[in-house]
Design goal:
The structure is a homodimer. By secondary structure, chain A is α/β, with parallel strands linked by helices. Chain A has three domains: 206 residues, FAD/NAD(P)-binding domain, CATH 3.50.50.60; 107 residues, FAD/NAD(P)-binding domain (3-Layer(bba) Sandwich); 106 residues, Enolase-like, domain 1 (2-Layer Sandwich). In chain A, the strands form five sheets. In chain A, strands 1, 2, 4, 5, 6, 7 and 18 form a seven-stranded mixed sheet that branches. In chain A, helix 6 links the parallel strand 11 and strand 12. Strand 3 of chain A pairs antiparallel with strand 3 of chain B.
Chain lengths: 457, 457
Amino acid sequence: MKFDAAVMGSGIGGYPAAVYLADRGLRVAVVEEHLVGGECTNYGCVPTKALYHFAESAKFVEKVGGEVAYRWSSLVEWIRSVVRESRAGIEYLLESRGVVLIRGRGVLAGPRRVLVESSGERSEIECDKVILALGTDPADLPVARFDGHGIVSNREAPYFEEKPSRVLIIGGGVVGVELANAYSSLGVEVTLVEVMEHILPFTDRDIASVLRAHLSQRGVRVLEGASVTEVSRSSGAYVAKLTSGEVLEVDKIVVAVGRRPRTSGVGLEAVGVRLSEKGYIVVSEGMETSVKGIYAAGDAVGGPLLAHKALLESLAAARSALGEEAFRVDYKLVPTTIFTGLEVASVGYTEKELSALGVKYTRVRVPVYFLSAVKIKGHKNAFVKVLLDERGERVLGVHIVAPNASEVISAYLPLYLGRLSVKEAARTPYPHLTVSESLRDLAEYILGEPVHLVVKR
Amino acid sequence: MKFDAAVMGSGIGGYPAAVYLADRGLRVAVVEEHLVGGECTNYGCVPTKALYHFAESAKFVEKVGGEVAYRWSSLVEWIRSVVRESRAGIEYLLESRGVVLIRGRGVLAGPRRVLVESSGERSEIECDKVILALGTDPADLPVARFDGHGIVSNREAPYFEEKPSRVLIIGGGVVGVELANAYSSLGVEVTLVEVMEHILPFTDRDIASVLRAHLSQRGVRVLEGASVTEVSRSSGAYVAKLTSGEVLEVDKIVVAVGRRPRTSGVGLEAVGVRLSEKGYIVVSEGMETSVKGIYAAGDAVGGPLLAHKALLESLAAARSALGEEAFRVDYKLVPTTIFTGLEVASVGYTEKELSALGVKYTRVRVPVYFLSAVKIKGHKNAFVKVLLDERGERVLGVHIVAPNASEVISAYLPLYLGRLSVKEAARTPYPHLTVSESLRDLAEYILGEPVHLVVKR
């Protein structure tokens, strides 16, 4: 089969490029071995956020003294239905653009040839351009190898057939804390183990501390600086031994310690596509690999493993492939969001990073519990932290720890970008009874004229 | 008593000015007849949003097949506790700034004199500056006069001692639709009557239609172009006759047909403060009334009766009173937000307004159900509408009809302000699994390169 372009992978690093190219008249094939939509749609963002919204709702009803009854199987069936619908949406997008979806395992057989294997049958694609959107796989641990039912990754975690009573989550990164928050909110006994000094090791300690307190309040046992030394099975349950000597019996173990790029066994080396030491695909600013005409985007090129970063990379790759004006993805503008009731959203630098770089900065940290929108949700420790350069002019980082932070960070982006001044933010009537209005309060505070914040002088 | 400034009213049109003035060294008194915090804190935003968040959570649990049990009295007690805490927050703000809170009814006895009456006792304040933050009262109807328990306003509506079975809401403005949404989500049988052609008469019909469909889905009977001609009591219930001839029996009637400024009987006319025909206080751009040294802010000056508008006016009034550089409140930048599950948030012009002004415009309207963040909440009709000038350059209005729209509108404000270009928005990695990322999709669509939207050509 002859195509203008072949996109390997239909996840959010792949399908946007396919759509973009098809819209510009190219004949495009997408090769997908598993489910259309990839990790985000099928195992990541979509199912975990569906679970999350239910968990938060149930928890909120209980907070106000109510009781919630539901069937776990209905919850999981509903999560499946949301995912199915999201997946169908992407299939429809591809179809509407006339993109040919080829199901099977794609292997690069040359810079312009992709072999596709599906249940023993082989087909061959010839194409001018290739876009690699290969994604990542969850990594397991020598002491806790995935077994598909009891020791699992994020892929099985939103879909447990029965409600587990006790879950051990190994890894206190984004995936780990999100699942810990959701499960515990639904009454599951959760132990979260993080080997580093604190959970969310990539962010600042003050943020991690507040999140740890939040998780503890939800009933999660958070063990930091701890790891699992041994796991064994015992009559249907799993027994895990921790570095502290403690022995835990649980129903499920979720390993969320990191990802591995899906870059081996697909012919990259043979064709000459350069990989980093960790196996990520090395790309230029225009998302081109070391082989002319082969581009890559999404998780498999490394960087923050986030859907919105993958999407922009995918589009940048497509534009490069077309010879259009390349646009650079601004990685320092990619927000991180953590969906944990008391959500965390960050953009730009952490204090940790600035200190490591030797950059002097001014730290503005304001509590936001005075906002009724926060009070209603009940998160006393909510705060916003903004890091400014030494002269207090440029915003180097924004960190929001508050309900709805995942939405609110988008209101802060123009401030971070320097497109909105602090003075303008202070004069902008951000709507009341939202968390976004914290931006006005923060700006007033920086200007030295805070209304809702009490400055100790 | 001698003060530098007296602020009449401790609502959100009043307390910010008091804080600002006190922070600049003035001796400030706030006169409050009722509860500190005024309408927003005690009867408006805060209690209705508390009720709303509970109602949405309960509804969401039910959507996924769960059941919710709770005691109405616990719900109301919790709402009261949130309000008490918000009120205490404002009291603390005033106290922390050394503002003297004087409880009682204030009457202007001269341009620099305020008389305060409290349980028969009278005191007198002499001051250089007065800021009037008098607020509004709910209006009732000749056929439905408030009786304090069965025919009520927004002031009683979040606090019913028992869960009503059947409620008639007269008035399909913001207050009416918000209460209709919350009550119906909690299983109350709600009839919503709007005299105009459609609910939310100030906005465009397409927005109102989608909201009507949403309310209907929640179980609200929405009657447009209808009104109540007669109300009578019948053994504990109320019987309302509608223009259609229909007779309705209900437990409670909420009248939400508008507001009246609290500007009579407080000595304004005697001192020479000019009022508009409808009784609102006439102010200059610097929020000064027709009497030098007397300023006004908030609902009592008219315009959009919104907390965030009142707050900025309050600060503008304070600055004027101090002779500082005045800043003008940009009324076209004041977003309207409607908290109805499928929320509505708007800034700038409606199509209706542009047509009336004879301004030609381009309408960009995109569905946003493709966003998984919307799919999870299940609002198939969600959309974003942006009105551009004829050349497609300037943004004249933004209308978001989607869950979380109240937060999301703040991310759109820089686009509306012209501080963020469409091209920049298209390149910004707004975080995935939020509704804010609709901004990137909308921008791509305007640029003619949509990924997630299918353009019929």
